[in-house]
Amino acid sequence: MFVDDGSGGGGGERLIGAPTGSEIDALERRVAAVVGLLNATTGRLTEIVAEALATGAWEQAGIRSPAHWVAWQTGMSLKRSKRLVRIATRAAELPVTTAAFGAGSLSEDQVGEIAEHVPAAHDAELAGFARHATAAQVGKVCREYSFTPPAPDPASPTADPLPDPTPSDRDDANEVSFGFDGDGRWHLRAHLDTE
Q1: Which of these, 46, 47, 110, 118, has the minimum number of CB atoms within 10 Å of its CB?
Q2: Which residues lie across from 118 on neighbouring strands?
Q3: What is the phi-psi region of residue 76: left when phi exceeds 0, alpha when psi lies from -120 to 50, beta otherwise?
Q4: Helix/strand number for the chain, H first, E second
């Protein structure tokens, strides 16, 4: 059932029991305040994780990785713990993002995407964007935007001419690396000629 909201104009009806605009605004302000506290608290937790990484406090008997230690200490899932470790690992090189996280302006999801994909040179740019975007939008931009500088135009008068590669140059371009990442996972990377 609808009732007249008293505005005097046509179309000023609302559903009985539905909140008014001012009630919705008040509710949204309360949500924003609580979310800000959650974000700031998670930012503080990330600072503590960074301290555990720096001091080696996570290295205890039976603990397989920093993420395992975080999961054990917090009761979080291993997936979420890995994200916090990644954020903590990149905190020093992403000072603008880290400060916004600690102030409660950015969420763990937003900061996690930035820490996973964004080079340090774009820290302020992405932190500014993230303040006005959803976590899904931040993730899409972070995953799809090419952060590598464009290759120099060889026809440009300021471009250094590139010599033709020699066979020894091609051999040196082959790379294989392996080891443990900061989150305790073992990795293998190879960049090889097709032969």
Answers
A1: 47
A2: none
A3: beta
A4: 8, 4
CB-CB contact of 50 with 36 (8 Å): no
Indicate the helix (H) or strand (E) that contains 159.
Answer: none
Q: Residue 187: beta bridge partners?
A: 179
Tokens of 119: 């080079």
Confidence of residue 153 (pLDDT cuts 50, 70, 90): low
- 190: three-class secondary structure by DSSP: strand
Vertex 193: Cα angle to 168 and 188 (nearest 5): 110
Decide if 80 contacts 100 (C-beta within 8 A): no
In angstroms, the first-to-last Cα distance of the chain is 75
Dihedral angle computed from the Cα positions of residues 102, 107, 110 and 115, in that order, rounded to the nearest 10 degrees: 40
pLDDT digits (tens, 9 = 90+) for 81-97: 999 999 999 999 999 99
pTM for the predicted model, two decimal places: 0.67
Using CA atoms, how far residue 195 sits from 7, 124, 137, 191, in Å, is 78, 42, 41, 12
